[in-house]
# Entry
Amino acid sequence: MTIRNLILDPNAAVYTDDEIVGKINSATTQIARAGAVAAAARPIGTSEIEAANIVTGAMKANLDAMIDAARGYIKTSPVDGQFKIVSIERDSAGRLKVDYDDSIPDYADAYWVSPNGTATWANAKSQTPLSGSACCSLATGNANASPGDTVYFRAGTYSGITGSAIDPAKTGTAGNVITFSSYAGEDVQFVGSGLSCYAIDLDSDYGTVRNYIKVHDLHFTNFGRHLWIRRGGHNEISYCSCLGYPVGGNDTNLEWSASYIYRQATHNWVHHSTFGTFGCCIHTPDDRNTDYGVVFQCGLEEADGDGTQYNTVEDCHMYQGGHHVISLNGKFNVYRNIYAHNEPWYPIGAPLYGTRTMFQTGNVGDGCYNLTEKCRFGYGGPKNKPEIGGAGGTLSGQRNLWRQNIFLQVYTDGMFVTKYNTDVIYNKVYNNTFWHCGYGNYQENPGGTVPSPYWDDAYTHGMDIAEWGTDIHDNAFKNNLFYQNHDHYGTAYSIVSHVTHVAPVLQEMANNWLDNAGDPKFVDITGTPDPMNQTQFNFNLQASSPCIGAGTHLTHAVGAGVGSSTLVVLDALYFQDGAWGSDLSDVQPDWIAIGTVGNVVAISSINYATNTITLASAKTWADNAPIWLYKNSAGERVLYGTAPEIGAKPYVS
# Structure
């Protein structure tokens, strides 16, 4: 028998239930499930956790957030006509087995078009797919498609088009979109044969205004006009391509732009599409050279009251324009995740020539309040005549927002800020990366030839601001990263005044990493440049990068707030409230951090005239509290640690 002692202490502390829980939660050694639950009870049983026990969408979101190597399941996002993969496995014979859901979609309102279709419109309607002559013709589809109809195109080449390929006679309506799509991802090709032919004709300057039209997974080559939307709204172009122009096209017979969205065009959404190769860079022996043509233009470069606004262009690849590749104009438009480049391509004379990559201009009232985010602009030039050109981005507007963009391998300036039609004021350019602009063997020796005779060292820097007078002022440049850019004047200023050749004096400059600051330690910027490779070069930061956590705040609070949803700031133009862009696309309001990086909240609305931000929920802050961007327009977190990074890429450990 063992004698045991029990001592009672009348002075022992008495803990409430909440205090006991608090002691447990604050313990240095955390309580693991394995140590707290009996072995037999540890496994979670079938149906023990149901949908009601988990926040909506949390299970899928957590799995999606895992890296590919660790996810342990296959994520598929099929589009119309495609099947969901159920499982992939290796069978006993070593073969790959794919199980998929082959449930037949409902084609109750579907019409079918083929290259050799001859059926009437009524007979081309079928709940099961039709093919060949049982389908109707392209012309019949264009003439008859009505609100709510889906027109499926069967595989093949629709050639000899001298008018328009996609040209619906009627308009869709809200909730009753007219859809033109390939069937089940089949290869559908349209080939133009005239300088005035349209690939996608939603030009509503005359006749019926075409709204709520969707064009999906159709491909066009050699059209004189690619995508035209004038006055139309709520149209969607997805997974399409428009490339090239008819033989014989030049500056005397081509339109200025292959693709136009302008003249009161609103809420259109262009995404996951490719546009390229349009215009000319003609070099003549007498130096009367011509650069002409734009690949894609949203809004007009020189117009008052154009009214092109609330459009979204994203996840697109655009390249090879005669004068430049893309114009980002208008008002309240969103341009995201676009890769635009303009390497030497025009096949006349030697060497080959390319020109500018991007323009953003506009008269007073246009060319303002546009967001350009997470784009890549590169490989501009060399020019074919003695004038400026080749700039990765030409900024000439007001109150525009540029962030998380990368400018790379540009022949001349990475960005050129200059006046065209209006004073260039109050633009916000922050957290962008500029690498290897202003020089490089690839640009100086296109096609292996000697350097271009029109090389101009005056335009060879990371950024060049034309401060000729007082018409370019109060633009903000913060947290931008410059590395290995040319410095012609040897002044060690990556952002130079075109007049003084040193730092600009009329702009707000803060916390930029200049070329002479040293190696920012990108993950990988090695290899021979390949302009067609959209993902070449990894500009993420290594763990040892000095740019991690080295960024500064964007603005600060004017006055304190206690449990308030009204925040007055020094300058609200650094942010957008989710009202920009097409309402067809998912443009989310910015989130900001106020005072500390943990005091975060979504923006509900912004009054730019009073610099007042209405918050989605009440917060507390001190007067003069610093304010950072926490999430961008895609809802992606961009602020980690105690401060933001310098450059386009946030560091995630």
